[in-house]
Structure formats: structure tokens, C-alpha cells
Amino acid sequence: MTTDAIVILKADHKKVKGLFRDFERAGDDATARKGELVGTMLEELTVHTYLEDQVMYPEVRRLLPDLEDDILESYEEHHVVDLLCIELTGMSADDERFDAKVAVLIENVRHHIEEEEDEWFPKVREGLDRGQLREIGARMEEMRPSAPRSVTEVKKLSKAVHALSA
Question: What is the pLDDT of residue 165?
Fold first, then answer.
């Protein structure tokens, strides 16, 4: 298995996009199935964004400072996704706004994935060598098993870290 960071992140994207398609195809009367799919989506998105925020983005920012604006935009896109995930965590799949909120989440994440894969990843691949990408990927894979599985865990960790550094 490769540890190339971009290959790893694209594999995560593929998994999440599959969950999106399953949700969209589930049908109006598939409330329980949609709830299960969203639970899996939220977990996958939490792990993925955590690994990007903790490893990929800081390393690329350090190694390729010209990409700082792209990274800052990605952090903000993650913030919007986190807010939607937090709201969905507190909702029932039979809530009248559940499907609409999931649709907004899907739109935001698809946009983010498209920007990363079409614009950002090519710049990173051009600026970093294979060894650097493998090292970043290995660090992400090392962190994956212990990464938070719920966006509420991430927020608690983030608050604790900020409190310690203050």
C-alpha cells in the first residue's frame, strides 16, 4: 500500500463520494438508511479533515509557502463542513430539514474535493518530491487509528490544546 499523501487523500475522497451517491439514491422513504449513511459520512469526514488539518496542511504550508492562501481557504472550508457536521450530529434523520442540510454538506464537500484534486493537489505534487509526499502520508496513516471519529471530539481536543497554549 502506498503512503503517498495525495493518493491517500484521493482514496478518502472516493469513499466519501460513494457515501454521498448512496445517500442521494436512498429514496424519500429510507429514513433509517439515510441516518446510517450520514453517521458513516460524518465519521469519514471527521477523520479525513483531522488528518489534513493536523498533518497535510501544516506540512505543505511549511514546505510550500506560496500555497498559503490555498491552505487558508481549505481551513475555512473545513470550518463550514465542521459546523454542518455538528448540526447533523444533533439531528434526527426524520427531521424535516435533515435531507436539506445533508444536501448542503454534500455540495460543500464536493466543491472542496474538486478544488483540491483539480487545483491544489497538482501544485503540491509539483512542489514536493515523492519522498516528502510518502513521509506526509505515512504520518497521516500513523495518526488515522487514533484520529477523532466525531466532530465534537475534534472541537473538544482543539479547545483543550488552545487552553494549554494560552
Answer: 43
